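Homework help board

Subject: predicted structure for assignment chain

Our instructor gave us this sequence and asked us to write out the predicted structure in token form, then describe one feature. I got the tokens but I'm not sure how to describe them. Can anyone check?
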Amino acid sequence: MPDFLLNALLAGLALAVVAGPLGSFVVWRRMAYFGDTLSHSALLGVALGLLLGVSPTLAVTVGCVLLAVLLVALQQQRLLASDTLLGILAHSTLSLGLVTLSFMRDVRVDLMGYLFGDLLAVSSEDLAWIIGGSALVLTLLVVLWRPLLAITVHEELARVEGLPVATIRLALMLLIAVVIAVAMKIVGVLLITSLLIIPAAAARRHARSPEQMAIGASLLGMLAVCAGLSLSWYQDTPAGPSIVVGAAVFFLCSALLPRFRSSPASATR
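My token output:
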């Protein structure tokens, strides 16, 4: 296997493993639009990273984390409805990133790569960032799994039981921000949320517990990565969109299969 293909496979599998359980919380808590907002802001992070002369991956990570904190602060002010606020920030940050890049005439930027991903161009340095970030997020998810599940099932009951609901919610948003920053190199800023949502939605239909759904989403994501890379290798299609297409095919197959009996995972609805 060529080195660049091995790097792409390892990066995709590392992301799929952590995107499964994190995407499950995105589906349960209906946070898809929040993920879109962070993914759109990633392009602004790229522009600022190039402008300041720092690593674009580091700039995107810091930018996504700061935007997640800003979103939490603005939502607590209740000045606007959450969906309105997310829509304003999503399109504003994406447009600001494109405008900033247009002023940098001396810098050549592969805009299509950032928008739609360039998995086959993952370097050893990128792979280290992806594996390190995914391992950190997965470790924190394991530690916070029960509190996150508690505030997802019944937030008011979790608050009565003494859980720091606001802190746990912020931690979840920060984890999503880190994964989106890490995943930008693989599927691009316009397709990141798809990799979080589609495998989790496919696994939800047949899971009998939240843990089964999280594991199933990770496995489906890994299969989608393998299928997408195979399609890209043999048919010369773009790797990032091919992975999303693979995930969509698995979701369609899941929807056509007979549904298992109702389970504790349905309580998160």
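Reply (TA_rk): Your tokens look well-formed. For the description, you could write something like this. The chain has a mean pLDDT of 84. That's the kind of observation they're looking for.
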